[in-house]
alpha-L-fucosidase
Amino acid sequence: ALVSSTLFAQKPESREQTRDERMAWWREAKFGMFVHWGVYSVTGGQYKGKELPNSAEWMMNRGNIPIAEYEKYAARFNPVKFDAAEFVGLAKQAGMKYLVITAKHHDGFSMFHSTASPYNVVDATPFKRDIMKELAEACQEQGIRFGFYYSQCQDWHHPGGMGNNWDKTIQRVSFDQYVRDKAAPEIKQLLTEYGPISIFWWDTPRDMSKEAFDSLHSSTGLQPDVITNDRLGKDYPGDHKTFERKIPPQAPADKYWEVCMPISGSWGYKKIDTDFKSPTTLIRNLVDIASKGGNYLLNVSPTGEGNLLPQSVERLKLIGQWMKVNSESIYGTSASPLPKLAWGRCTAKSVDGGTMLYLHVFDWPSDGKLLVPAIKNDVRQASLLAHGTEVKTRLTDLGIELTLPGEAPDPYASVITISIDG
Ligand code: FHN
């Protein structure tokens, strides 16, 4: 076998848990932080002073940068402003319940003290600190679930990794050797030496030998309840589906799904990145995704100094202020039972034998009248979540008509709760 069976022997009890058990906290959490961070942040994705196309973490590929040249960025990686507690505190302040960070992206650089590859943040940079260890500890201290992103196939540094077709100096070895010598031992190390890991996030699957698939797949058995996404390979659906950058127009059929999206235009820190999404877009994305039953994995990009740009910090804090008032309309909710709403979105929760509907009004009616279609059940009570003030309701043939105050309580999304029977 490619990898000795003892290396990834699944503990018999390891995956017996049902998927629903494993996913319970994730379904409740709804909102997580994605972090793309690596040596590409030293220049913000620029090479020889030039902007490269695509997301910054692809600079080695887009710039056809030879391995020996790219390694010089590692020798310059020294994020002295990095403070794990502060960083995790920002995620918590934003209302994010979990954090997934790139332990190794396609460039092959390990952002942890890898025992399988000296090309890592402790052994190959002046920083010499195990960033993954510091983040894992900070997440544990602050009650944030922690997980790793790992590029299992593409590795532009290892001579057996996939994806580097520009550096002709590489003395190629087999992909199976890359799995045996680097990917498998690194994944085992990440899943067993960094405390409880809640998520393992595969990326850019490619065809590989069954042995390689099996050895990588069985590694997730090293932490009994680690959640995996659907990007190990076509025969490995994982625990949830991943949509990227775009929100599905309708609620997908998948029981568990997420949308991962950069807060700006690039996953990795890009020196010139003018595509920061507005706070309105970000909050309404969170609401839209929750209204369809999904999770939002929102990505931020630490700079080469180890901090986040002010644009990201400001947005995370604004989302946090909105969540401070309205998070009950997101956490633990399920998809809307209503037809598409022209004025906003709806999430739902079963409470006291009935249903609580959370109406997120994006477009506040100027005449104070809001029709909630297709509700025939008796309304127990309706009120503005922000103030707790009661809202008058009237049952009509088309649904429930609400009479609202003149001013919307929130500029991004105003929440009205309606408690109905059944
Ligand atoms: O190529 C990667 C990309 O750099 C980034 O990590 C995204 C995040 O989902 N995944 C791949 C593109 O789908």
In short: Residues 261 and 297 are 6 Å apart (CA to CA). Residues 55, 57-58, 203-204, 244, 260, 267 surround FHN (CB under 6 Å). Residues 5-329 form a domain with the TIM Barrel fold (CATH 3.20.20.80). The longest strand covers residues 344-351.
